[in-house]
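== Folding the chain ==

***
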Amino acid sequence: MTKGPFLCAVVASCVAFPSISQAEAPDIVVTGSALPAAKGDAAYDIVTIDRDRLEGTASNRIEDALRDVAGLQQFRRSDARSANATSQGATLRGLGGNASSRALLVLDGVPQSDPFGGWVTWPAFQTIRLSNARVTRGGGSGIFGSGALSGTIELSSLGAAQVEGLIGDFSYGSRQSVEGNILAGGRIGSGFGFVTASYARGDGFVPIVARQRGPVDIAAPYEQASLAVRGVAPLSADTELQVSALAFTDRRTRGTILSDNGGDGADASLRVVHTGDWAWQALAYLQARKFRSRFVSVNAARTNATQTVDQFNVPSTGIGARVEVRPPLGDRIELRLGADYRRTVGETRELFTYVNALPTRIREAGGNGDTLGAFAELSAEMGALTLTGGGRVDHWNIRDGRLLERTLATGAVIRNDRPADRAGWEPTGRLGLAYGAGPVILRGAAYLGWRLPTLNELYRPFRVGADATAANPALKTERSRGVEIGIDWRPAEAISLRATLFSNRLDRAIANVTLGTGPGVFPGVGFVAAGGAYRQRQNLDAIRSNGVELDGQAKLGEWALGASYAYADAKVRASGAAFALDGLRPAQVPQHLVSATLGWRWLQATARYATSQFEDDANARRLGDAFTIDAIAVIPVTQRLSLSLRGENLANASVETAMSSAGTVERATPRTLWVGVRLVGGKR
């Protein structure tokens, strides 16, 4: 096979492949994957989205593909083309959220949430370089540590068999939108590597619904790009080195002047995987982020937009390491031992309190957070019964916190908060069983989880329109506990059905709690205008969520059907200053979520429905239900070239995503049509 000189140069710059003779090469197989899935995973509610489906959505975006798993949602319904990046935390099972994720997202084992704010920069994860996505609903932190309160989302990069030659696509869509993705990869010696590049831009749509627009409302354009490199090389017959690097840029505008947001990032990771008798893997990673966001206040007539905050620089860094060992205990018993460490460092630098369109004050807020944990998990297969149980303990600390505000004119200090450093321990664990009887598997599990507050939640006050929210450096760690029972049934090879009943409780849930309304001066934020809400981040007593999840897959000849349904009866438990929220539904949590995809040969259509949800914690602003239909056709032209036709929100439904204190409604993506070409795999 001819090797492309460009590909060889790029991958070789990231991985120094060992010299291996031709005689040795046939005995060495590299995969680029982690250790095999644990035996105990049979006890948990796990859904896998394969590569074909990841690349088969009308939007061609990872966050859309993940919505196939009903119950998995972002804080808002809008995707990464129009949403503010800080509203894109992921959660499951109706446990609510804010900017921060309550589901842990990892790529090849590396946590992907923003080190400062806990949100997810979805444009960094282009589907062209992913092999699959594995979603575990619930399950607590398990072996993952802080963050996996409501579940985990594990993304895996492509393997050796999936990167041969050139793969790519280019599309042109509504509102002058363009997208392009390309992958070049192949074997290099006894290893393999690939490079991917992605670019997307569009003029955008006007976020405010038509009936409420004014002269100030404009379209919200976006521009996003990423470059990723991955190389895998054998170190021995059963040990391989995996090196990855990623860089991305993300620019969005929120539909008025002075409302741009986005950022840049770069990640690097190194993983060594050994599959011998003493199986083990070791991972180290580094993340660098730089975020920016500007906010405006719009008058009631929507004729004027006034700058309120310029969050001009939010640098943050995440570093971490992880090791796992599986001693040889026989084919029926598996023991997992390991430890991990993660440090987050970040701060925000922003201008605020504008007078005559000029800022008068500057704020710096941030700090450091560390977690160090160790875990052990034992699983045993005893005939048709699988038992699994494990625990972990984490030590955390929060330190060097600060919130400094100064006047720009004189440099005089207005506020200089230096909260005391804090530390603590968090023990968690999980137990599960699975029993197989022919085509039926019965499952049951109980688990604990936890999450460290983000630096953003602890130290940064913020404003959205007339609403202002104060930070809270005294926030406690969130803790979750849950139980579930389920049944998997495979009546035929091509048909699988899954049902799960769950009861989850999130203690000390962090929420933006409404404490007053303007006009007035409030602690931590200053003046709040008439009609604005004053909130503070606080720990609620709990969020309790009970529900059911149903999933089904069927393939009958050239027809394929996939469907998912989630019901979550979620309620807030609150007392003290937040007592008014007791019994209410968490913000942005619908009760019912449904997703169904029907495919036939090269055509497939997806329908999704979400019931109404509340914008706010007080349940005063209701966002309507939403029903959308997407479709995609990939029509073969030659053996390697296809024509693609895609349609998002074909019925042009108005999907409400946000509502201001004045009742102004924002919407998600309207009808968007795409035409493009796809180049599928094959040797160059």
Summary: Confidence is low (pLDDT under 50) at residues 1-26. The chain is about 5% helix and 60% strand.
